[in-house]
Amino acid sequence: MIVTNLNTPYYAVIFTTLLTKNLADYEKTADRMEEINGINNTN
Q: Which of 7, 26, 27, 29 has a CA-to-CA distance to 41 between 20 and 30 Å?
Protein backbone atom coordinates (compact mmCIF):
# COMPACT_ATOMS: atom_id res chain seq x y z
CA MET A 1 0.00 0.00 0.00
CA ILE A 2 1.44 3.37 -1.01
CA VAL A 3 0.18 6.36 0.92
CA THR A 4 0.64 9.81 -0.59
CA ASN A 5 -0.89 11.93 2.18
CA LEU A 6 1.16 11.27 5.29
CA ASN A 7 0.01 13.78 7.85
CA THR A 8 1.70 13.71 11.24
CA PRO A 9 1.35 12.11 13.64
CA TYR A 10 1.65 8.74 11.96
CA TYR A 11 2.57 5.35 13.37
CA ALA A 12 4.37 2.19 12.27
CA VAL A 13 2.80 -1.10 13.26
CA ILE A 14 5.32 -3.94 13.29
CA PHE A 15 4.54 -7.55 14.03
CA THR A 16 7.14 -10.28 14.28
CA THR A 17 6.53 -13.99 14.02
CA LEU A 18 8.47 -17.20 14.16
CA LEU A 19 7.22 -19.60 11.50
CA THR A 20 7.23 -23.21 12.60
CA LYS A 21 5.92 -26.47 11.17
CA ASN A 22 2.74 -26.05 13.22
CA LEU A 23 0.61 -23.75 11.07
CA ALA A 24 -2.62 -24.20 13.03
CA ASP A 25 -4.46 -20.87 13.13
CA TYR A 26 -1.62 -19.12 11.26
CA GLU A 27 -3.96 -17.59 8.67
CA LYS A 28 -6.47 -16.58 11.35
CA THR A 29 -3.72 -14.84 13.31
CA ALA A 30 -2.39 -13.09 10.18
CA ASP A 31 -5.91 -11.87 9.39
CA ARG A 32 -6.25 -10.52 12.93
CA MET A 33 -2.93 -8.66 12.69
CA GLU A 34 -4.11 -7.04 9.46
CA GLU A 35 -7.40 -6.14 11.10
CA ILE A 36 -5.60 -4.52 14.03
CA ASN A 37 -3.35 -2.62 11.62
CA GLY A 38 -6.27 -1.43 9.49
CA ILE A 39 -5.15 -3.18 6.30
CA ASN A 40 -7.89 -4.03 3.83
CA ASN A 41 -6.96 -6.80 1.38
CA THR A 42 -10.32 -7.16 -0.37
CA ASN A 43 -9.01 -5.98 -3.76
A: 7
